[in-house]
Design goal:
- The chain is mostly helical.
- The protein is 85% helix and 0% strand.
- It is built from 9 helices and no strands.
- Helix 1 crosses helix 6 and helix 2 runs parallel beside helix 6.
- It starts with a helix and ends with a helix.
């Protein structure tokens, strides 16, 4: 696990030297949500009903904004080629890089979501469900996004292409995550949604590093 810890620590240090890579998506997350009460309605009932969809959509787009820089810095500096030809397992290295991405993007979104949920008039119970669904789903967004980022790593100005590749895969997670919080507002059972998100998380952890490694090798050939 030493290579995993070293790669994770390296990516976190690199992000701290270039804070705009993870601060810009978080600023977009906060600003976009704060604009909805102005654009729609300041009424608490209206905002609380729309809050799950608002927070989930902006969370997904914030993660998507940060994916373009996941591999490009290492690609421009020739580090990715060294990772591929090294004797260390490439899927483990990519898992460490994806974990760093989640720590810098997904985890702050989870920490900010209670404050933004209260701003949209969600009660404490629904805020707890929101945090739980984001905790299950944001790692999936990073893991699935790593596959798309590895496919277009050699293409410049590939943000639109990355969105076209990844957004269709994000839709089921968005539907079930939003549905869990919405049904919780009406005191309906949400076990099915949570089981689905948990299953996607486990499946992504098992398969995504290997698929990303294969896609990265193909992209750099």
């Amino acid at each position: 696990m030493s290579i995993f810890i070293k790669t994770l620590r390296r990516d976190l240090k690199m992000a701290l030297r270039n804070p705009s890579s993870f601060l810009n998506p978080l600023l977009f997350f906060v600003i976009a949500i704060s604009l909805f009460p102005i654009a729609i309605s300041p009424e608490s009932h209206t905002l609380s009903n729309m809050a799950p969809g608002i927070i989930w959509v902006t969370s997904m787009l914030s993660v998507l904004l940060s994916l373009n820089a996941l591999f490009h810095y290492d690609y421009d500096n020739g580090v990715l080629e060294q990772m591929i030809i090294s004797h260390h397992p490439l899927p483990l290295i990519l898992l460490a890089k994806t974990t760093a991405h989640w720590i810098l993007t997904g985890l702050p979104i989870i920490l900010l979501s209670p404050l933004l949920g209260m701003a949209l008039f969600l009660d404490s119970k629904n805020i707890y469900i929101l945090i739980l669904t984001l905790f299950l789903a944001t790692p999936c967004l990073s893991l699935i996004g790593a596959i798309g980022a590895s496919l277009i790593v050699g293409i410049k100005n590939s943000g639109m292409l990355l969105s076209l590749l990844i957004l269709p895969l994000y839709i089921p997670i968005l539907i079930f995550g939003t549905s869990a919080v919405s049904q919780s507002q009406f005191n309906l059972p949400i076990d099915g949604q949570l089981y689905f998100l948990g299953s996607v998380l486990i499946f992504s952890l098992i398969t995504s590093p290997f698929v990303s490694a294969l896609a990265l090798r193909i992209s750099l050939e």
